[in-house]
Amino acid sequence: MKLQDIFARAGRSLRNAKGRTVLTSLAIAVGAFTLTLSLAAGEGARQYADKLISSNVDPQSLFVVKDDSVFGGVSGGLQEYSATATQYGGISFKTLSAKDLEIVSGIQGVESVTPTYIVPAEYVTFEDKDTKYTTDITAYDPSVRSEVAAGNLPPLGQQIESDAVVVPQAYAEQLGIKPKELVGQAVTLRLVKANAQLTPKQVETIIKKQGIKALQKKLAAQSKDVKLIVVAVSAKSSTALSTSNGLFISEVKAKELSDYLTKGTDQYQQYVSATVKVKDGVDPEKVKEAIGPAFEKEDKNSTVSARSAKDLQALLFTIVNTLQGIVGGFGVIALIASVFGIINTQYISVLERTREIGLMKALGMRGHHVSRLFQFEAAWIGLLGGIIGAGIAWGVGYLLNPWITEQLSLGDGTYLLIFQPIPIAVLILVLVIIAMLAGWFPARKAAKLDPIEALRTE
């Protein structure tokens, strides 16, 4: 008996038991639905992550730190003091020194090294506002693009003007000002320089030569106000990586203010991180691999970590794959349940059609043909369930995509659920194979039936 004849007969047999066939197929459709959505969400998230990195991060840049906790995140708390550490956001980090930056600059392929300047202002004030605020102030990173709610920012790779400041949209909301109205207003930074650190001998010398008033002046805290102009309000958007709740000022201004505040202290020219610009045509990964050995050559106890755009992309992909695996796990559980449903359905079918099987074998149908008949019936159930589940998933995804895009502010034309024909076709094929494997046991039972005994069955 030809395979196509057996396959067609299997289809006719299932049509005679439509209710049972549909219900069993729906059990598989649940798993197919979940797995199809999982595939679509995974593909959409990966494409979005790839778009996010490629449009926001300069692929020729590296992010260098001396403390891995900058990447992994640590909690604050009581930590041992170190002259080569700094506080930021209530957390203590090991810092890069000027010498460390020189080592990185000397690596072949490095175009420039820009440290991350942190400006610990005492407070900031906004134009026409009497309230004083405290906030983080860092240098604007030109290698990471920010979306704006108002104003303008330079293209990726270019710095803002020295007297400019970028304010987060959340600040405008807190101030009760529309982003457009905030652009052009002045922001004043109040800087207080710490007292000079003098040794007992230096104190004695100043008193002897210049008197008590000179010493008081030397120890007195110095302060000054720096006025900057808001050029842009950064938007709260999931398509931008830089969603800092601090103020961004130009690199030139940040260096000037950082040096002013730390000169004469042990925090002078100590940096939490640095951005390394790699020359065009040079693979950033090779430069990243060369950073560790370069430091080991200078000091075996000194370690530096570097991350590239690919590393950030890999991190996002890991998160996406983990979430996709969790969702897919529920689909697999549904499929396991449906496998037992297929086995049960086919066993019942064998029992109900015992005389029919006996008649087919008496008329010359071989055992392996009978086995194939029931396996093909199971394959039909798997195919039907896969098509139903994938079709419903595609329809649901088509309807949900605009809503998801709006809720997550992904931007027009960006969807989280992306359905690709080939993976879905492969999924349906796998479901068919699983269904055939599930139908093997009932098919084996049907193939072994004795035709005489089967014909005697009532």
Fold blueprint:
Elements: H1 3-15, H2 18-56, E1 61-65, H3 69-72, E2 85-88, E3 91-94, E4 96-97, H4 98-105, E5 110-115, E6 123-126, E7 137-139, E8 148-151, E9 164-168, H5 169-175, H6 179-182, E10 186-193, H7 200-210, H8 212-219, E11 222-234, E12 247-249, H9 251-262, E13 270-271, E14 273-278, H10 284-298, E15 305-308, H11 309-352, H12 354-362, H13 367-408, H14 421-438, H15 440-447, H16 451-456
Parallel strand pairs: 7-12, 9-11
Antiparallel strand pairs: 1-14, 1-15, 2-3, 4-13, 5-14, 6-10, 8-11, 9-12, 10-11
Helix pairs in contact: 1-13, 2-11, 2-13, 2-14, 7-8, 11-15, 13-14, 13-15
Radius of gyration (CA) equals 34 Å
Largest sheet: 7 strands, mixed
The structure class reads alpha+beta
Counted by DSSP, the helix tally is 16
Low-confidence stretches are 73-83
| Shape estimate | elongated
> Strand-residue fraction?
15-25%
Work out the count of structural domains: 3
Query: Strand tally, please?
Result: 15
